[in-house]
Amino acid sequence: MSCPSAITDVLSGRIQWCVVHGDSAQVLTALPRRSVDHVLCDPPFSPNVHLLQRRMLRGNSKRAGHEQVGFAPLGFEALTPELRRLCGMHFARVARRWVLVKCDAEGQQAWQAELERAGGRHVRVGIWHKLSAQPQLSGDRPAVAHEAFEIAHVRGERLRWHGGGLHAFWAHAIATDRNGTNSRIHTTQTPVALWLDLVSQFTDPGELVLDPFAGSGSLGVACLRLGRRYLGVERQAHYAESAHEWLAAENRGSTLAAARAGQLGLFSGGAR
């Protein structure tokens, strides 16, 4: 597979960002060595954890005066060992500096192993404390309070970040749409606030961030706000379209909700 023209334009610096609808494995295979500055991503959960994850649906029925809670599938497939190995191999090949992979806590060691197998350097395990996360509805065990980050780096390059002596710990509320702004468009959307912390601490202005599992595009939004370039790949067409719509609105100085309502952004008068 050759790279689509939009990807080539981002790699060359002709455009600042793109979201392409495609298979991440095929795109990764086609990318040249050391062609992006960083890889930051949120791939699917590992199979054993994925099976336990469901979207909570409220208000679908009521019984005995109590609101019933239903569940629906996440809407995408679990991560396979084969895809994780391929990603580990190519993440270590295409990145110039940092590789950050958000994952379930149970899957962190597998990601570390694949990145080290590919020649990457394991640096740290990061923690996202998920404020306002879903409680354990069964009440028979503790609820999941966090997700992990496998934080790795390309070997042979000096480690450098903007966090000083801070811990690899970030506390942010989960992404919701409780205020009705249509700000949550993916079932497992990572909050923009978390990505803003990571992008500002691990990358420099003008650098290119590769996101092979773009989902909602929330990482891309953080990149645009902080003056980074962004290359997103999303397998599901409807998510790729929504992510592109969100980034286009952000690029115009608007929001996704305002763009969908037909409102003009602050920068609508010209290219940005």
TrEMBL record:
<dbReference type="GO" id="GO:0003677">
    <property type="term" value="F:DNA binding"/>
</dbReference>
<keyword id="KW-0808">Transferase</keyword>
<dbReference type="Pfam" id="PF01555">
    <property type="entry name" value="N6_N4_Mtase"/>
</dbReference>
<dbReference type="InterPro" id="IPR002052">
    <property type="entry name" value="DNA_methylase_N6_adenine_CS"/>
</dbReference>
<feature type="domain" description="DNA methylase N-4/N-6">
    <location>
        <begin position="166"/>
        <end position="244"/>
    </location>
</feature>
<dbReference type="GO" id="GO:0032259">
    <property type="term" value="P:methylation"/>
</dbReference>
<dbReference type="GO" id="GO:0008170">
    <property type="term" value="F:N-methyltransferase activity"/>
</dbReference>
<protein>
    <recommendedName>
        <fullName>Methyltransferase</fullName>
        <ecNumber>2.1.1.-</ecNumber>
    </recommendedName>
</protein>
<keyword id="KW-0489">Methyltransferase</keyword>
<dbReference type="InterPro" id="IPR002941">
    <property type="entry name" value="DNA_methylase_N4/N6"/>
</dbReference>
<comment type="similarity">
    <text>Belongs to the N(4)/N(6)-methyltransferase family.</text>
</comment>
<dbReference type="InterPro" id="IPR029063">
    <property type="entry name" value="SAM-dependent_MTases_sf"/>
</dbReference>
<dbReference type="InterPro" id="IPR001091">
    <property type="entry name" value="RM_Methyltransferase"/>
</dbReference>
